[in-house]
Amino acid sequence: MGGAAYGSFLMVCKNIHNFTGPLFTICIVIFFLLFAHKNLPGKGDLQWHLTFGGIFSGKHVPAGFFNGGEKIWFWFGMTFLGLVISASGFVLDMIVPFMTIEYTRGTMQIANIIHSSAAILMSAMAMGHIYIGTIGMEGSIDGMKTGYVDATWAKEHHELWYDELNKKG
After folding, report:
1. Cβ neighbours of residue 76 under 8 Å, at least 6 residues apart?
2. How many CB atoms lie under 10 A from the CB of residue 68?
3. CA distance linking residue 114 with residue 46, whole number of Å
4. Nearest in space to 63 (alpha carbons), one of 125, 137, 146, 128
5. Quick check: helix, strand or coil at residue 157?
6. Among 82, 97, 85, 47, residue whose Cα is nearest residue 68
7. Measured between alpha carbons, how far is residue 12 from residues 15, 103, 160 in Å?
8. Measuring CA to CA, how many Å separate 110 from each of 17, 104, 115?
9. Between vectors from CA 99 to CA 95 and to CA 102, what angle results, nearest 5°?
10. Most CB atoms closer than 10 Å: which of 40, 42, 54, 158?
11. Other beta carbons within 10 Å of 100
12. Tens-digit pLDDT profile for the chain (169 aa)?
């Protein structure tokens, strides 16, 4: 591609990144508002965490609408890391809205390290979540594509949620 073309390509990518960053923050907030109530600690979560979802015991651990691993992804991966990425990105874009920050070289270097580290960790967690939700667990991708899962799958993977739905119905 050559140095000049690659440099121009990177500049375009950087500008796209800088302008879509605030959209990322808005999406994190919307996602939080939509799903926070379903990710509150609930019955079975402690047991799920102690057994790592039954990975080591080989025994099924009942879960609600979201299991303990999905709740860790929501609270730590999506919410906490998403907000860290957003806040450090605002510093890097020099658009911190509610406080005065001296945008010195040191401040920008620290913000860059925080931004990059949080983004790498969030990306790694997202890849694990995507793997489990697609090819790692049979039937889960159908639920994501359509919004529905069959009763057998629901009972097998989210038994507490399944039982709750059947009490209402």
Report:
1. 125
2. 22
3. 30
4. 137
5. helix
6. 47
7. 5, 23, 48
8. 19, 10, 8
9. 75
10. 158
11. 5
12. 788 899 999 999 999 999 899 999 999 999 999 999 999 998 888 888 888 887 777 788 888 888 888 999 999 999 999 999 999 999 999 988 888 888 999 999 999 999 999 999 999 999 998 898 888 888 788 888 888 888 888 888 888 888 888 886 5
**How far, CA to CA in Å, does 41 sit from each of 34, 70, 81, 137?**
16, 11, 19, 23
pTM of the full predicted structure?
0.84
Calculate the alpha carbon distances from 13 to 92, 132, 136, 167 in Å: 15, 30, 32, 51
Helices in the chain by DSSP H: which ranges?
A: 3-35, 45-50, 68-72, 81-92, 105-131, 140-146, 151-157, 159-168
Per-residue CA distances from 132 to 1, 27, 83, 93 (Å): 36, 22, 24, 34
| CB neighbour class for 45 (10 Å; exposed up to 12, middle 13-18, buried from 19) | buried
